[in-house]
Write a structure and sequence with these properties.
By secondary structure, the chain is an all-alpha fold. The chain is built from nine helices and no strands. It has one domain. It starts with a helix and ends with a helix.
């Protein structure tokens, strides 16, 4: 019994220590954002890598999700003679939940793993030690540009994903479900409110911060050798995905609770 309780205690302490380490890392990152110098070349490169090159995967995910959502809502609404709600529900579902969450998860799979592997490899090959030798703060040079770039570009990806997802629902609704094109678009505009879109963009910014932060955190803490880099990459993706889902619930509770 004592051994069982001790194992629970060790696991609890390890979780609390990890939460504290991540919190301190996030605080240091935000603190470095507010103090010069700032490496603009690294920031622009990170914007291209995180934002522009993630557009295809986010766009395709949103397109097929919007189409599948339209089919599911139509099939479910047909049981209650409520097929007309398809345009509004697809739009609200995409901009509030599916656009930010699926976009965040796809970017996490692509970007968090890439950042963790890149920084982990730099640590293994002692490039981070070389930065310190050259009087360059590794967090300012490696972490701050990536975190800031993700925080600014992921909301843009979410917005593009929302538009493409709604278009996917429109294409399926018009071509497969027999909706009038003008009526479908009019229902989408009538039921979509500004805060629906804005809440999704806020979620996107939070998710972007989480994605880059987890990639940098686990990359900086990577173990030696190829196995250490592999474990850091896997941990970054898992942690970012779980934190995105948890943050999504908390933000939804904050924005839309009665």
């Amino acid at each position: 019994m004592t051994a069982f309780l001790a194992s629970i205690g060790r696991a609890t302490l390890a979780i609390l220590a990890s939460i504290g380490a991540v919190t301190l890392f996030a605080g240091q990152t935000v603190g470095h954002m507010l103090r010069p110098p700032f490496y603009w070349r690294e920031f622009i490169s990170a914007c291209m890598t995180i934002g522009y090159f993630s557009l295809p995967v986010v766009g395709l995910t949103a397109l097929f999700t919007g189409g599948a959502l339209a089919l599911q809502i139509y099939a479910g609404g047909a049981r209650f003679n409520a097929e007309a709600v398809v345009p509004s529900i697809v739009a609200i579902g995409m901009v509030r939940e599916l656009g930010p969450v699926l976009g965040g998860l796809m970017v996490a799979a692509r970007v968090a793993s890439s950042i963790a592997a890149e920084i982990g490899t730099m640590k293994v090959t002692e490039q981070i030690d070389a930065l310190v030798t050259l009087s360059t703060n590794p967090m300012k040079y490696l972490t701050v540009p990536r975190v800031l770039a993700a925080t600014l570009t992921v909301p843009v990806l979410v917005l593009v994903g929302d538009i493409i997802g709604i278009m996917g629902g429109y294409l399926v609704g018009v071509s497969r479900l027999g909706f009038n094109p003008a009526a479908y678009l009019q229902n989408t505009v009538d039921f979509l409110e500004f805060w629906d879109v804005a809440s999704g963009l806020v979620k996107g910014a939070v998710f972007g911060f989480i994605i880059a932060l987890m990639g940098c955190y686990f990359g900086m803490r990577s173990g030696r050798g190829a196995q250490g880099v592999g474990r850091a990459t896997k941990a970054a993706v898992v942690a970012a995905s779980v934190m995105i889902l948890a943050a999504n619930y908390l933000l939804t509770e904050l924005f839309f609770s009665a």
